[in-house]
Design a protein that fits this description.
The chain is α+β, with helices and mostly antiparallel strands and 199 residues long. The protein has six helices and five strands.
């Protein structure tokens, strides 16, 4: 592997003294895990936040080797991480995507949908402006992974949007995130609890 691609940072975890393993969603190569040298440094910590869009240079000697990545920030969503509701929305969709998708499964439509949803979270004046996009994204991800469910069309009424989110919880927890990935649902429960406070 030797490529340059736009990517969305989904997650990162410490590796070694200063490095990090980043999980990135790319349009042409899907979910890619890569080692980022200095990923925990002051300079790169803000780049490694979930939801950020980056330009990623990925290089590996073989298909079985963990690639090395150099990341350049294209669009930061760091400012949103100080606001509880947007931070919970970004945390959930990034954790869901990182846990549900198989490695190196190309899904350009999902990449575009996630980038659009993150943009909506950033620019909508309130959660009412992006919860319907979240419902559409969850439904699209379920369909992409072979778990087709009818897409609810709840309108813009917040109680109806929360009811539609509740209907998707079972398929997400029991199909996409069953087993060891089930703890990812805690991020969704945090989000729904914060949304309920708006009613």
């Amino acid at each position: 592997m030797n490529l340059r691609s736009p990517a969305i940072v989904l997650a990162s975890r410490a590796h070694g003294e200063t490095g990090a393993i980043a999980r990135l969603l790319t349009p042409g190569h899907g979910l890619v895990a890569a080692y980022v040298a200095g990923g925990r440094s002051r300079a790169l910590r803000a780049v490694m936040l979930p939801g950020n869009r980056v330009a990623a240079d990925l290089a590996a000697r073989s298909a079985t080797q963990l690639p090395f990545a150099r990341l350049e920030l294209e669009h930061s969503r760091a400012a949103l991480m100080t606001e509880p509701l947007p931070a919970a929305g970004i945390g959930w969709v990034c954790a869901l995507t990182a846990a549900a998708l198989p490695e190196r499964y190309p899904c350009p439509a999902l990449y575009q949908a996630l980038d659009a949803l993150l943009g909506a979270i950033a620019f909508a004046p309130s959660a009412r402006g992006w919860v319907s996009g979240l419902i559409a994204y969850e439904t699209m991800l379920l369909a992409e992974m072979g778990e087709g469910v009818p897409r609810p069309d709840p309108g813009t009424d917040l109680p109806a949007l929360l009811a539609a989110l509740a209907r998707l919880e079972g398929p997400l927890a029991n199909s996409l995130l069953a087993g060891r990935k089930s703890d990812v649902m805690a991020a969704r429960q945090l989000l729904t609890a914060r949304l309920k406070r708006m009613i």
